[in-house]
């Protein structure tokens, strides 16, 4: 059974995953709500790309942008679940330490502010748990 720090890290990771899922669903609803507004609205590319196509339909541009954003959202959910949450749940806490820090920093950089902060706090809790397990197994009493 994981100690209190590992349990807290697991909860923080779960909250980060839930928030990412909520943002993902909101993103899908935004696409569905705003796509009809942009139907058949061309973008003039003649000034941007001389000799290329003069117009491109705005829905195509929006679809590509949101498809990439949604794919990244799915990637974050999968990485957080499999590299952090699942390992803590299976009590392989040491293996979740590095992914929690790396994914937390990357998510902070690329716009996942709240989940990024939650993952960094989870990393701190994982590190505390690992340190406590190391001190307990070496024979020194935990503090």
Textual characterization of the structure:
It is a single chain. The chain has 143 residues and is mainly α. The protein has one domain. It is 76% helix and 4% strand. The chain contains four helices and two strands, in the order αββααα. It has helices at residues 4-38, 58-89, 93-109, 113-137, and strands at residues 42-44, 55-57. The protein has a two-stranded antiparallel ribbon. The relative contact order is 0.17.
Summarize this structure as a short list of keywords or feature phrases.
76% helix, mainly alpha, 4% strand, 2 strands, single chain
Query: On the 0-100 scale, what is the average pLDDT?
Result: 81
Approximate strand percentage = under 5%
Strand order of the largest sheet: 1-2
Overall radius of gyration: 21 Å
User: Which spans have pLDDT < 50 for at least 5 consecutive residues?
Assistant: none
Describe the largest sheet: 2 strands, antiparallel
Structural class by secondary-structure content: mainly alpha
Number of helices: 4
Portion of residues in helices?
Answer: over 70%
What overall form do the CA principal axes indicate?
elongated
In total, how many beta strands?
2
Number of domains: 1
Tell me the span between the first and last alpha carbons: 19 Å
Query: What string gives the helices and strands in order?
Result: HEEHHH
């Amino acid at each position: 059974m994981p100690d209190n720090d590992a349990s807290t890290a697991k909860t923080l990771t779960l909250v980060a995953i839930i928030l990412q899922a909520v943002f993902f669903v909101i993103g899908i609803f935004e696409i569905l709500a705003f796509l009809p507004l942009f139907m058949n609205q061309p973008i003039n590319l003649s000034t941007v790309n001389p000799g290329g196509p003069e117009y491109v339909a705005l829905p195509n541009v929006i679809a590509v942008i949101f498809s990439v954003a949604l794919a990244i959202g799915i990637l974050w959910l999968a990485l957080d679940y499999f590299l952090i949450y699942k390992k803590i749940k299976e009590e392989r806490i040491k293996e979740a330490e590095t992914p929690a820090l790396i994914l937390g920093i990357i998510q902070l950089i690329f716009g996942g502010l709240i989940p990024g902060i939650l993952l960094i706090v989870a990393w701190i809790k994982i590190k505390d748990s690992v340190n406590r397990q190391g001190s307990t197994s070496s024979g020194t009493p935990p503090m």
